[in-house]
Design brief:
Shape: globular
Protein name: Cirhin
Strand order of the largest sheet: 2-3-4-5
CATH architecture of the largest domain: 7 Propeller
CATH class of the largest domain: Mainly Beta
GO molecular function: RNA binding
Helix content: under 10%
Number of domains: 3
CATH superfamily of the largest domain: YVTN repeat-like/Quinoprotein amine dehydrogenase
Pfam families: Beta-prop_IP5PC_F
GO biological process, one term: maturation of SSU-rRNA from tricistronic rRNA transcript (SSU-rRNA, 5.8S rRNA, LSU-rRNA)
Largest sheet: 4 strands, antiparallel
Mean pLDDT: 91
Oligomer: single chain
InterPro entries: Beta-prop_IP5PC_F, Quinoprotein_ADH-like_sf, UTP4, WD40/YVTN_repeat-like_dom_sf, WD40_repeat_dom_sf, WD40_rpt
Length: 692
C-alpha cells in the first residue's frame, strides 16, 4: 500500500441510544433489538453478527416489548397498540389497539398462535395470530395495577404475570386467576415490583424484582421455593437457557449473575425421586450501566441496556465482543471532487468541508506522524428531516452539487451550491418514488440510483435543477431478487449497476441497454459489503463469514485470484467478531483491496503470496502507531514489511467508514467511544473498599 495522508475524522458525534428490549428467533437466528428512539434493528447472528435491517422509529411513540411469531415481528408500546412490521419494506403493517391504556409487555405462546399483552389498567389482552394479521380473542379478569411482565407456560393454557407486590397465575380459558403469590417487602410502605418472569416446563416460575431478589416459585401449588438476594438494586431482566438448567439475571445493578440447577445426591435428572436445587454460578461484569435486556443464542449470552452497546459473551471459553450503537452502514458519503463529506445522523445530515495539511514530502524527507493542519474543517450545512422523521438512507454526489435522503415516507433531492455562502434548493418531487432503502450517485454526478421501498431499482437523471426518471428495474417481479436491497453500487464508468439482497442474491444490470447482465452464484451467507474496482470493473464481495470473492463483470466469471483464495482464507480472518462494512481500492495500486470493520482495516495485496491458513495476520503501520497500539502482538505480530497477501492496520475504535479522497489522501471516520460514554446518565453508585 502506498504512503498517504489520512484524515482522521472524529467529529462524527452520534448520540447513544439505549436498548430497551430484545427478542431472539432461533430458527432464523435473528435478533430484534429495540432502542430508545423506538427504532428496531434486526441483527443476523447466523455467522458474524451484523445489522441486517433497521426499522425507523416513529415520532412520539415507544417500543416497550417485542416478540417473534415465526418470521413475523410484533411490538407493543405506551401508545396502547400492538404493531406488526413489514420486514421487506421496513414499515408498519398495522396497529391494533389494546384494552386499555399503555401496553407494557407482549409475549407469544410456544406454538406462535396467540399473543398476550399486559396493559397499564391491569388487563391481559389475548389475540389470535392469523395469516393476515391479529384477531382479538378475549381479555382476562382485570387486576389492580399495571401488568409489567408476563410469560406463557409450555402448554399455552396458562399465563403468569408480574406487577406490584404480586405474581399471578391465570387460566386462559376461564379468564380467572388461579394463584396470587406475594414476594414480600424490604420496607413496609415500599411496594415490591416484579419486573421480569420466566417459566420452566415443570412449572417452576422465576421472577426478578425491585429488591434485587431472584425468586423461584412452585406454580402448581402457588408457593415460594427459594429466594436469593443477588443484586443491590432492581433486577430488570432475566433469561432462561434452552435446556432450562440455567438462568441469567441483571438490572440496575449491571452485574450479570447466573444460576444453575443441580441435582442433590440420591436422585438424577431423570429420576422421579430426585430433588433439584438452584445454586449461584458464574457472574460477569460486562456493562457499567443498567442492563435492560438479556437473551441466549447458541450458547452465547446477549446483553444490552442503557450504555447502548450490544454485548455477546460466552464462558467457557471466555469471550466478549461489544457492538457500538452506530447507524446501519452506509452513514458517510465522501465527495472527492468537492473535498466534502456528509454525515448521516438519526434525523439530520451534516456536510463538512475537510481541512488541509502540509505535504508529506518536504524536500527529500518524508514526514511521519501527525501533520499540522493548514486549514480547519468547516461545517457547511445541517439539513434536518421534515417533522423530525428518521432518515433511512442518504448520499451526496461526488461534485457536492446534489444531496438526497429518504425517510419512511418521503424521498427528497436537493441542489447544493458550495462557496463562501453555500445555498440549498429543493428539487421537484418525483411522484413515481415515495421512499427509498438505498441511494447512490454515479461518479460523474449525472445519475442517481435508488432502491425503493417497493423493491424497484430506479435510475434518475440529474440535469440542472430538474430530475428525470430515466429507467426502472423490477427485480422482484422478474424474480431476480427475493428481499429488500441492502447493498447498492454503480461502477466508476457508470456501465454496471449492482444490487444485493438479504437472501444472498447479487444482480448486475448494464446501463447501455438497461438489461440484466448477470447474476452471481448464490452463496450460503449474506453479503455485508461490495464494491466495483474503478479501473478494472472487478466486483469484490465480502460475506458475513468473511469470505472474500472477486468477480469480473466484463468476463462474467470469478477471477484467478478469487479461485486461488477459495478455501485458503486465514483462520484468524474468518474468526473475526465484526463484519466488514465497506470495500475500497488503492488508487495507486490495482492489486490492493482494503476492507474495513469496526476497528480494523484489512489490506489484501493480490500480488503477494497467500499465507498459510493457520498463520497469524501481521499488523503494519508507522513505528508510532505500533508502539501505541493496545492490541496484543500475539494476536497480530508487528511488521513494517508484510510478506504475504493479508495484513491489518489496527489503530481505530468504532471505525465507521474508510474511503479515498484523492491519490494520496485517505479518510477514516470514527466515533469516539469516550464521547458516547460522556453522554450516558449516571450509573448505580457502589461503595468500593478504600474509596470515599
Amino acid at each position: 500500500m502506498s504512503t498517504c495522508r489520512v484524515h482522521s475524522v472524529r467529529f462524527y458525534d452520534l448520540e447513544p441510544r439505549a436498548i430497551h428490549c430484545m427478542a431472539y428467533e432461533s430458527t432464523q437466528r435473528k435478533l430484534a433489538v429495540s432502542r430508545s428512539d423506538s427504532s428496531i434493528e434486526v441483527w443476523d447472528l447466523a455467522h458474524t453478527p451484523h445489522i441486517e435491517r433497521t426499522i425507523p422509529g416513529r415520532v412520539n411513540s415507544s417500543v416497550e416489548a417485542i416478540t417473534w411469531c415465526g418470521e413475523r415481528l410484533f411490538s407493543a408500546g405506551l401508545q396502547g397498540t400492538i404493531t406488526e412490521y413489514n420486514l421487506q419494506t421496513l414499515s408498519y403493517k398495522f396497529d391494533i389497539p389494546v384494552t386499555a391504556g399503555p401496553c407494557w409487555c407482549l409475549e407469544s405462546n410456544c406454538s406462535n398462535t396467540r399473543l398476550a399483552a399486559g396493559t397499564e389498567d391491569g388487563y391481559i389482552n389475548i389475540f389470535t395470530v392469523t395469516n393476515d394479521g391479529l384477531m382479538y380473542e378475549k381479555i382476562l379478569d382485570r387486576q389492580e395495577g399495571r401488568i409489567l411482565c408476563l410469560a406463557w407456560d409450555a402448554t399455552g393454557d396458562v399465563i403468569i404475570t408480574g406487577s406490584a407486590d404480586a405474581v399471578r397465575i391465570w387460566n386462559v380459558d376461564s379468564g380467572h386467576a388461579i394463584h396470587r403469590m406475594t414476594p414480600g417487602r424490604d420496607e413496609r410502605k415500599k411496594e415490591t415490583i416484579i419486573w421480569c418472569l420466566a417459566v420452566i416446563k415443570d412449572f417452576t416460575i422465576i421472577s426478578g424484582d425491585s429488591r434485587g431478589c431472584i425468586t423461584f416459585w412452585d406454580g402448581n401449588t402457588g408457593t415460594q421455593i427459594e429466594s436469593f438476594q443477588t443484586h443491590k438494586a432492581d433486577i430488570l431482566c432475566l433469561c432462561l437457557a434452552e435446556d432450562e438448567n440455567s438462568v441469567y439475571c441483571a438490572g440496575v445493578d449491571p452485574l450479570i449473575i447466573s444460576f444453575t440447577k443441580v441435582w442433590l445426591r440420591g436422585g438424577t435428572g431423570t429420576s422421579s425421586c430426585g430433588r433439584s436445587k438452584w445454586v449461584k454460578s458464574v457472574q460477569r461484569r460486562i456493562h457499567d450501566h443498567d442492563v435492560r435486556a438479556l437473551a441466549l443464542a447458541d450458547g452465547k449470552l446477549l446483553s444490552a441496556g442503557v450504555d447502548s452497546y450490544l454485548a455477546i459473551s460466552s464462558y467457557p471459553p471466555r469471550q466478549l465482543v461489544k457492538y457500538p450503537p452506530l447507524l446501519q452502514a452506509p452513514s458517510v458519503s465522501v465527495c472527492p471532487e468537492a473535498r466534502c463529506i456528509m454525515l448521516r445522523y438519526l434525523s439530520h445530515l451534516e456536510v463538512w468541508q475537510l481541512g488541509n495539511t502540509a505535504p508529506i514530502e518536504n524536500g527529500d524527507e518524508i514526514h511521519e506522524g501527525i501533520l499540522p493542519l493548514i486549514e480547519d474543517p468547516i461545517r457547511l450545512l445541517t439539513l434536518k428531516s421534515r417533522g423530525g422523521d428518521a432518515i433511512v438512507c442518504a448520499d451526496m454526489s461526488s461534485n457536492g452539487k446534489w444531496i438526497a435522503y429518504s425517510s419512511v415516507t418521503t424521498l427528497c433531492f436537493f441542489s447544493f451550491q458550495l462557496g463562501s455562502k453555500p445555498s440549498l434548493q429543493k428539487a421537484p418531487v418525483l411522484c413515481e418514488v415515495s421512499s427509498a432503502h438505498r441511494i447512490t450517485f454515479t461518479s460523474d454526478s449525472t445519475r442517481a440510483i435508488v432502491s425503493t421501498s417497493t423493491g424497484d431499482i430506479v435510475v434518475i437523471q440529474l440535469g440542472g435543477d430538474e430530475l428525470v426518471l430515466e429507467h426502472v428495474f423490477h427485480p422482484l417481479d422478474d424474480r431476480l431478487l427475493k428481499d429488500a436491497v441492502h447493498l447498492l453500487t454503480v461502477s466508476h464508468d457508470g456501465q454496471f449497476i449492482v444490487a444485493g439482497d438479504h437472501c444472498s442474491n447479487i444482480i448486475v444490470w448494464t446501463t447501455a441497454d438497461w438489461k440484466h447482465h448477470c447474476s452471481l452464484p448464490r452463496y450460503s451467507c449474506v453479503p455485508t459489503a461490495l464494491s466495483v474496482h474503478p479501473r478494472t470493473n472487478v466486483l469484490v464481495i465480502v460475506y458475513s463469514d468473511h469470505k472474500v470473492v472477486e468477480y469480473s463483470l466484463c468476463g462474467r466469471k470469478y477471477t484467478t485470484f478469487s479461485r486461488g483464495l477459495e478455501g485458503r482464507h486465514p483462520v484468524q480472518w474468518l474468526s473475526r467478531g465484526f463484519a466488514v462494512n465497506s470495500v475500497t481500492f488503492d488508487p495507486n495500486n490495482e492489486d490492493i483491496i482494503m476492507l474495513q470493520d469496526d476497528n480494523t482495516i484489512c489490506i489484501i495485496d493480490k500480488d503477494k503470496e497467500l499465507p498459510l491458513a493457520e498463520a497469524k495476520i501481521p499488523r503494519v503501520g508507522s513505528p508510532q502507531s505500533l508502539s501505541d497500539s493496545l492490541d496484543s502482538s500475539q494476536c497480530h505480530p508487528r511488521t513494517t514489511t508484510p510478506q504475504h497477501a493479508f495484513h491489518v492496520i489496527k489503530k481505530y475504535k468504532h471505525l465507521v467508514h474508510v474511503d479515498w479522497l484523492s491519490g494520496d489522501e485517505l479518510i477514516a471516520v470514527e466515533v469516539n467511544p469516550l464521547a458516547l460514554a460522556e453522554k450516558l446518565p449516571a450509573s448505580l453508585k457502589e461503595k468500593r473498599f478504600g474509596v470515599m
